[in-house]
Write a structure and sequence with these properties.
The chain has helices at residues 38-45, 54-67, 69-72, 111-129; strands at 24-35, 83-89, 95-106, 137-147, 154-155. The protein has 159 residues and is an alpha+beta fold.
């Protein structure tokens, strides 16, 4: 990572030209976490919030967010996504872990789509629960893994 590819020689922002790159299968996996009161998590898990099934709404929002990433992040290429999956876990008391996986056959990576999906899912959970829990926090939106393309396979180490 010796150069910032979204800037030209004069420092002007630009969309990277990927026209000469080969189309390859690419995958990215991302995570976000929402920390909340244990009672809020119970309401989510028991599907007892007045707004509906929080996790299913968050799943749909995540997929929609991934599909619209190039509209939200100025220099992202629009990608013909092959799939976006969203799963939820409960690694500790009061925490919802969101994991997203985006796949595409394209000339550029799909990391931003996976990250956007995770972030939108977290924001949706926050939105649906804010009336019962004003102390919630969205934490550690991060890339966990990516594969495909010239830069090869990356997996976040440790933690």
């Amino acid at each position: 990572m010796s150069e910032l590819t979204h800037f030209d020689e004069q420092g002007a922002s630009r969309m990277v030209d990927v026209g000469e790159k080969p189309v390859t299968a690419r995958m990215a996996r991302a995570e976000a976490r929402v920390r909340m009161a244990e009672t809020t998590l119970e309401l989510i898990r028991d599907r007892k919030l007045a707004k509906g099934d929080v996790l299913e709404v968050a799943r749909l929002a995540a997929i929609m967010g991934a599909k619209r990433t190039s509209e939200l992040i100025p220099l992202c290429h629009p990608l013909p996504l092959d799939s976006v999956t969203v799963s939820f876990g409960f690694p500790e008391a009061g925490v919802v872990a969101i994991e997203t996986v985006a796949r595409v056959s394209a000339r550029t990576g799909v990391e931003m789509e996976a990250l956007t999906a995770a972030g939108v899912a977290a924001l949706t959970i926050y939105d649906m629960c804010k009336a019962v829990d004003r102390e919630m926090t969205i934490e550690s939106i991060r890339l966990l893994e990516k594969a495909g393309g010239r830069s090869g396979h990356f997996t976040r180490s440790g933690d």
